[in-house]
Amino acid sequence: MLPRRALRSLLVAATALLGTTLLGPVAQATDPVDAAKALAAPGVPGANDWSCRPSAAHPRPVVLVHGTFADGTVNWIADSPALASRGYCVFALTYGAKAGVPVLRAIAPVADSAAQLSTFVDGVLAATGASQVDIVGHSQGGMMPRYYLKFLGGAAKVHTLVGLAPSNHGTTLDGLAVLAAQFPGATDVLNSACPACADQVVGSDLLTRLNSGGDTVPGVSYTVIASRYDEVVTPYSGQFLSGGGVHNVTLQNLCATDVSEHIAMAFDPVVLHETENALDPAHASRTTCLSHG
Q1: Which one of 5, 42, 137, 142 is at 20 to 30 Å from 268 when CA atoms are compared?
Q2: The model scores a pTM over 0.70
Q3: What does the pLDDT average to over 10-30?
Q4: Helix, strand or coil for residue 257?
């Protein structure tokens, strides 16, 4: 796993290159594939090959959903090429821009971001000919798809949702401040221009509505992978879901010496191996400290 200093340097460098990335929702696009392409994260290794056709071994495309303040390019430089090398059709979007805020993404209202995810999934399905996708999401990207599943018709289009350190039941402003400190300029945005941050605070109207009546929807398989060392979504146990079709995993139960915190979950080979198990349970193997994607 990458040390925190290396991760932060990577985030700074990558976000600096993406200042001209999408600033908002797709406008008036009628073709679903074109609409999805407009949301696709640029330069993600292994992702967004619109000619990819799922195989019998991996019949569902994998959609990668990044976390707050990040974007698809930054978040998935490790997992995307690993999954593509295993034969998956991989797609990654960048969502949640807010007018007047450069670089930082996943800060728009969660409901708006879920609508962008819906557009992206429809395009992936149209391009690949698949009937369903699997979703792997990090942080907000593990929680926000649940809004899509519950309120925007996504349940019929998604087979599996894997959440890495997801904000399923919210966090605190202190936790969000820890995350913001890793992204240049994010602390100012946190205090003034981040509806998604407010949506992720414990007890928010968004989370109350999302979790009312149960955490899950029928027909979808859920896996949550959380770390005891998560300093952003706290307490880490609040990341777990209840209900049918749920597999909750504490990273340290797989590898006691793994000290990955919130951001590192998206770069951790042990987490990736368990993610692959969730995507293909028929060929799952035991995850240990020696596992790698």
Answers
A1: 42
A2: yes
A3: 48
A4: coil
Averaged pLDDT for residues 192-221: 96
Tally: H helices and E strands in the chain? 12, 6
Domains of the chain, each with CATH number or no CATH:
4-283 (3.40.50.1820)
- Structure tokens that stand for 217 in this block: 């929807």
Q: SS3 of 224, please?
A: strand
Q: How confident is the model at residue 5 (pLDDT cuts 50, 70, 90)?
A: low
Residues 198-219 as b/e (b if ≥16 CB within 10 A, e otherwise) read ebbbeeeebbeebbeeebbbee
- Answer whether residue 189 shows pLDDT above 70: yes
Rounded CA-CA distance 199/206 in Å is 6
Could you tell me where the beta strands, DSSP code E, fall in 108-238? Answer: 133-138, 158-164, 221-226
> What 8-state DSSP symbol labels residue 24?
S
Q: Say whether pLDDT at 186 is over 90.
A: yes
- pLDDT tens per residue, range 117-135: 999 999 999 999 999 999 9
Q: Are 179 and 262 in contact (CB under 8 A)?
A: yes
User: Closest Cα partner for 73 from 145, 116, 117, 13?
Assistant: 13
Residues in the chain: 293
**H or E element that contains 211:** helix 205-211
CB atoms within 10 A of CB 288: 10
Q: With the CA atoms of 7, 8, 10 and 12 taken in that order, what torsion angle do they form, in degrees rounded to the nearest 10? A: 160
Q: What is the pLDDT of residues 136-171, one digit of tens each?
A: 999 999 999 999 999 999 999 999 999 999 999 999
Residues 6+ apart with CB under 8 A from 239: 142, 163, 165, 166, 167, 168, 169, 224, 226, 230, 233
